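Human: I would love a firmer grasp of how sequence relates to backbone shape in proteins. Take your time, and here it is.
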Amino acid sequence: MSNVLSYKNYTGTVEFSREDHCLFGKVIGLKSLLSYEGNSIQELEEDFQNVIDDYLQDCEERNIAPEQPYKGSFNVRISPELHRSIALYAFENGKSLNATVEEALAEYIVKTDSKQ
């Protein structure tokens, strides 16, 4: 079971409010706050899709580019020792630091996905 919704390259959470007896969520990976709710999974999914469609339509009407989640660039804080090791490995293998980190992350995700 997944606790995320996906629609038009946007991803949203699935959460439950015991107090309100409803499902709710928000779109992740954006600076803008886009939220939705429903009393069933079907209602939640419909509201999620409507929020995305409304957001995209609003951006179009205002002639602005919609935010794109996950642009492919992010900062990572690691220990100086690990940074040195990765940089040295990249140099010794004729690769850039970015390419080496991307390879390592991709390999990690493949291994993690295969365990599920």
The chain has two domains: 4-61, 80-115. The longest helix spans residues 41-61.
